[in-house]
Write a structure and sequence with these properties.
By secondary structure, the chain is an all-alpha fold. The protein is built from 9 helices and no strands. The longest helix has 27 residues. The relative contact order is 0.11.
Length: 223
């Protein structure tokens, strides 16, 4: 009896990266739509166009903060895929959850921008924005921990010390995001400070992946 050659389906990480790029590009573009062009009536009510453009500074702030946030995630997502060598269905779905969280950011940004100057809704506006920051952190932790568990989707030669360092950074980011949400109910200004510090930390360029001595050449040969 002749052997039947079966087609072995292999998921492409490149296709996942391209899909992720597209979703993040759309999410980051939607942010500018929250800076609305005023009607003539609103301009007159504000006392002129200069005054109106000055008064909507919360929209500029929300736009800048969220654009930076998504940009950091985009950059680190590409860095992550420098040492994730393959993918599978579960990983794809976890990445979809991450992209769903990223796509939610324009909504929480709009809430933040529209209500940050309202004394009665200031806390809730900051809580909404901090929640929008927390959701991607949770999902990216799932993505990295799943891929790194027993080197499921990473090279076996990747140093454990390097991987542990990434786990610690993710844990720190998660704790800071949780703290920003928790404090936003009573101390919203403190939450904004935490967000700013988080951005500064993740603006630092990530370290290159570290492999066991002599393993980089070996890995290149396999690919």
């Amino acid at each position: 009896m002749s052997k039947i050659n079966r087609f072995k389906y292999r998921m492409s990480k490149e296709r996942l990266e391209m899909f992720s790029d597209g979703v993040m590009a759309i999410a980051i573009t939607l942010l500018v739509l929250e800076i609305k062009i005023p009607s003539h009536e609103k301009v007159e009510t504000a006392g002129g166009l200069y005054n109106y453009l000055t008064k909507i500074w919360p929209s500029y702030l929300g736009y800048a903060m969220s654009f930076l946030q998504i940009g950091i995630y985009w950059s680190n997502h590409h860095w992550l895929f420098s040492f994730i060598t393959k993918t599978n269905h579960v990983f794809n779905m976890l990445n979809v959850l991450f992209l769903m969280a990223i796509s939610f950011v324009p909504f929480t940004t709009a809430i933040f921008s529209d209500f940050i100057l309202s004394h009665g809704h200031f806390n809730a506006a900051v809580t909404a924005y901090c929640t929008g920051l927390l959701m991607p952190v949770i999902t990216v932790c799932l993505v990295v921990f799943y891929a790194g568990y027993k080197r499921r989707l990473m090279p076996a030669t990747l140093k454990q010390s390097f991987l542990n360092e990434q786990y610690m950074k993710l844990a720190m980011g998660l704790l800071m995001a949780i703290a920003s949400v928790a404090l936003s109910f009573s101390y919203p200004v403190a939450s904004i400070v935490i967000i700013a510090v988080t951005f500064l930390i993740y603006l630092i360029p990530p370290t290159p992946p570290e492999y066991e001595e002599g393993a980089i050449i070996q890995e290149q040969k396999h690919h």
